[in-house]
Amino acid sequence: MALQMAQPYKHPRSGVYYFRQRVPTDLRGILGDKIVSRSLRTKDPATAKLRNIEEVRKQALIWARHRQKPEPLPFQQIVALSGALYRDHMAAMELEPGESQVWSETLSLLDRVAVSPERLTEWYGPTVDNLLLERGLVTDEISRQRLIQEADRTYRQVAEEQLKRSQGDFSPDPRANRFPLLETTEGAPIQQTEGPTIRGIFKLWERDHIAEGKAAKTVGDFRQKIESLIGYVEHDEAQRVTPENIADWCEHLKHDKALSARTVSQKYLAAVKIVFGLAVEKRKLKANPAEDIRVRFGKKVKTRPSGFTDAEAKAILGASLTAPETLGTKRTEENKRAIRWAPWICAFTGARITEATQLRTQDLIEEDGVLCLRITPDAGSVKTGVYRMVPIHPQLLEMGLPDMIRALPPGPIFYSTAFRKKAADPLARARSAGTKVGKWVRDIVKITDPNLQPNHAWRHRFKTVARECKIDLEVRDAIQGHEDGRSASGYGEVSIKAKWEAVKRLPRFQL
């Protein structure tokens, strides 16, 4: 009797179908009694059956390779295989790197693992064996040991990058491109020689984006989304990407990667639409495969105001007045200064937290007889790319903000310029300072409502209070650096005098 072909397996929670197959009996002595499983990237049973047939064919090739004589792997392929580990782990922790202490301890653990080849094999051996199994590679012990060593190097790189991210630095990994292109199961490398590549059209977008003076952070964000798409379709050929590929990729992100529909739509799909759209504008492609794709998501449930309440604002500002020595010995003086002043600055300017923590001593400026803070892209990051002058509120003048700034040496106010390998970029340090302020709000002040952003809520509150004070729309937008998209708003300037009169109307905090 003929054996029945393995049927797609439907995941009981996600509803996504999977290819599953047990290791053949004659290979269990080599590979163990394991089950190979991988997503078919669909919830449709008919589509799953068709894709399952292809996976059965691929898996048959893999089993055939395992029945062959082991062959050594060239070092380039070994490094390429370790790159697959890197991409998988980085994607899994893309949105939430966790606590920096965890990654510091992980690096220490990896140091202890690396004391001997035996411990390296014990630690990485199962991961490496599974990696080879998934790709149908049968190799000798020398190549396996070299792959174990590269796995150790790769996991260190992952830990170092996640440590950097946990400290607020999400800039692209400059070493991410060290991994060569990985070969597919059939042995064809993931690359092409004719026509535009996906990475190539991304470079076109990146060039224009940077030339227009827009945020460098967006480049890193978009690059990660583009690499995710390339990893999914398993090639770099822009002309081969179809609307079906894009739709299936979005489903894969939602169900296999457990990303929210809102995140998939507004971040991943949006980035791909923009990059491919630019390629069409530049006549590199005839059509944008993502143009008509939609990912539906429900309206975000709102259970409270987006800004701090009076009680929450007073709790944070009151706690910030604590003596510096009570903030702990592990905090730097700059970090303590950020906790002391950044919430107050945000409360009276409506600035983004990084716009506050990137301030420098030279950004205290007197103009038309009014002391102001200059928020400028020269200091780090301003979303609109346009500098603005914000008068300092009378309560901050009386509290001694200008005197504090004048007493400091030239340079950043809220982060150190001392060299640190993990955060050498000034913008990354400013972001890290803002992240630590937000963590302090959560951990110490106990403002823990998950529906509230511990720093950005000041920006929402400022707008609410400005409306209560009947501050003119254009004036409050000029103070906060908001753009309303109307061409009329581009004519004329909002003077320092107008902004000063508006700032003075903001009520004082009675603590």
From TrEMBL:
Residues 303-505 form the Tyr recombinase domain. The keyword DNA-binding applies. Keywords: DNA integration, DNA recombination, DNA-binding. Pfam families: DUF6538 (PF20172). Coiled coil: none annotated. Signal peptide: none annotated. The keyword Secreted does not apply. Belongs to the 'phage' integrase family. This is Tyr recombinase domain-containing protein. It comes from Thioclava nitratireducens.
